[in-house]
Every structure is written in C-alpha cells, then in structure tokens.
Amino acid sequence: MNNFQYYAPTKVVFGKDTEKELGALIKEQGCRKVLVHYGGNSAQKSGLLDRVCRSLEQENMEYVTLGGVVPNPRLSKVREGIALCKENQVDFVLAVGGGSVIDSAKAIGYGVANEGDVWDFYAKVRVPQACLPIGVVLTIAAAGSEMSDSSVITNEAGWLKRGCNNNLCRVKFAVMNPELTYTLPAYQTESGCTDVLMHTMERYFNQADNMEMTDGISEALMRTVIKNAKILLTDPENYEARAEVMWAGSLSHNGLTGCGTDGGDWACHQMEHELGGMFDVAHGAGLAAVWASWARYVCQERMDRFEKFAVNVLGVEPAETAEKTAARGIEAMEAFYRSIQMPTSLTELGIDPTEEQMQEMARKCSWDGGRTVGVVKKLDQGDVLEIYKAAR
C-alpha cells in the first residue's frame, strides 16, 4: 500500500430535525454576516429556507440570500455571489442544497478571500491561498462535496467544466437530515446514488498495491448503496435507506475510500465533465452512461480488480477465467444501472453527439492533447474519443 494522509475536519450533525441547530452552529464560527446560498424553488416551497433564516434570526445573525444555483453550477452565479459578499461584508457562506450549491459556495468563498479572478483556480493558473468559512445544510445525497476538498464550476465562456481541489474549502460543518431528501424526484435520487457509487469506484479501480482495510470499506459502501438505491426507487420516504445513502455519500468522497491507494482513476469523471459542459446532463446519469464503455476499454490493464469488483460487490459467481468473471461484472453493473432507471449509453442518456462534438469533448478532456486521464490505463485524446464512440 502507498503512504497516505487522511484529513476530514468537517463536523457532521446527522439525523432528524438537525437543521434546528443551524444558528448555534454558525454562531460557534464567530462570524458576523452570512450569505445563505441555495438553488431553485424547492428550498422555498418546502419551507426549509424559512426555517434556516429563522434559525439565524433567533441567534441575532445578519444574513443576505442568493438563490438560482443550477445543476453544473455556473461561473456567472459565483461572480454574482462574490460581489454580493464583498458589498455586504459577508464572512460566512451557508450552502442550502446539494453538490451544485456547495460547489458554488466554495467558489464564492475562494473569490472573496483571494484577489483576482476566481476562475484562475479552476483553470489551474493559480492556487487559492484562503477561503471564507463554509457550512452546509444538505438536501441531496450525491456529490459528497459536504466533506470533500473539491469544487466543480462551469464557465459559460466555452462551456468548460473544471474542478479545484484544496483543503481550504472543506466545510466547517454539515447538517444532514435524511428527511430533507424525501421530495427529490426519482431520477435525481438515483442519479445521486450513482454519483455516490462512482466516487468510490473511481478510487477502487487503480494501479496500487491495495490496502485490505480500504478495499473492505469500499466494497461494503458500494454494496450498501446498490441495495438502498433499489429500495428508494419504490419507497422514496424510507428513512433508513435515505440515511444509508446520505452517509455513504459523505464517506465516499471525503478521502476514506482512497487511503493507501494511488488516488484512483477518475477518467470517467473527466469524460463526464465534458458531457456536462456541452449537454448540461445530470452528473450521476452521465457517469453511468460512460462507465461500461470505459470499463471494457481498460479492464485488461487491471483484470484482477475488475474480477474482485464483480465477485465482492456485485455477487457474480466466479467463472473459469478472470476475463469472463470481469465481463459478467461489467454486465451486472449495467443491469443494476438499468434497474434504477439510469442510462448505460449516451443514447439512453438522451443525447446523440455528432462526430465533431465527440472530437471536441475529447480535445477538451485532454486539454488540447496536453494531458492523459486515468491510471488503470492512461488515456490520451484518441482513447477518450474511442470511449465516447463506444458509449454512444
């Protein structure tokens, strides 16, 4: 196994009615004025936004609000938030929502605390030196951004979807009440479950001498999400299933399932970022649409991992060869995606990219041919194009 550092400083407040503790949690941070950042109308219609603001008022805290975050959060909204924070001398950002809202809040935190253009951090031109403190009221179990060092933003100039990873943006606390996810549409719930799974799968498929403990945690997490994703398809208000998936989402992306490895592959995420940037698809669904094509393209490079995944995670009976077991595992994963109404191709995702569009996505994914993606097999621009074609 590799040497590693594990850092997870976020305070988690988990369970029913935990959003009532919000005001006290923010007061602990010693801040003076809060930006309450949220997405669309659901936070307002459900009454959650009112409860959040009431909790702040009970602690005599000043706040301003900014809604309108969309899936695949936009740089323009981030810049709007930065200006609002500077104008009002905001010193704490509270994200009320899922991964898109949290990522937008992190970007705002970077933009207020550093000089210059915040996009520089996502374009890898500069590294942030500070970030406003951030808290979260989680309403979607998916991205794991409530405990990760990651933030992903889409720049409308060129529709570039890029990430910034830095410990400075790790949130101070995450309020996690599974009941807040009850009203999510089925597609959004299952897309979120897929995202949770993929955060561990990306780390599981690697080129390291793996750590038995990390593998065991990863495999248990993946089995748990698969089990409960099926339950939630027909029983969306099953508290236990919602709780299992919500906690798995945090553990899947806070670094735990990568301890002792090389960090994992992440090629599927990089390819999906270009799908999201060009077609604005749901992130988890986009990952499901490309995963099997990626797996078939690279599995010869780490057949033992694909065989182990098939047996230990998906319950496939070992075949006479590792190749057959691995192939059946990939087929079983596709069957699972279909069972929760997730796509296994770009056509099922609802898009039909042209040859020129696939070439453009491959070019952007490879940064104009300047990098490879993945570690199971290092994929250049041509490889990425072939996977897009196979996924079509």
From TrEMBL:
This protein's species is: Hespellia stercorisuis DSM 15480
Concerning Gene3D superfamilies, the annotation shows: 3.40.50.1970, Dehydroquinate synthase-like - alpha domain (1.20.1090.10)
List cellular component terms (GO): cytosol
What is the official name of this protein in its record?
A: Uncharacterized protein
Report domain Fe-containing alcohol dehydrogenase-like C-terminal positions.
193-391
Against Pfam families, the record matches this protein to: ADH_Fe_C (PF25137), Fe-ADH (PF00465)
Taxon lineage: Bacteria, Bacillati, Bacillota, Clostridia, Lachnospirales
Report the SUPFAM superfamilies cross-referenced here: Dehydroquinate synthase-like
List GO molecular-function terms, semicolon-separated.
alcohol dehydrogenase (NADP+) activity; butanol dehydrogenase (NAD+) activity; metal ion binding; methylglyoxal reductase (NADPH) (acetol producing) activity
Give yes or no: UniProt keyword Oxidoreductase: yes
Q: Which UniProt keywords apply?
A: Oxidoreductase
Domain spans labelled Alcohol dehydrogenase iron-type/glycerol dehydrogenase GldA: 9-178
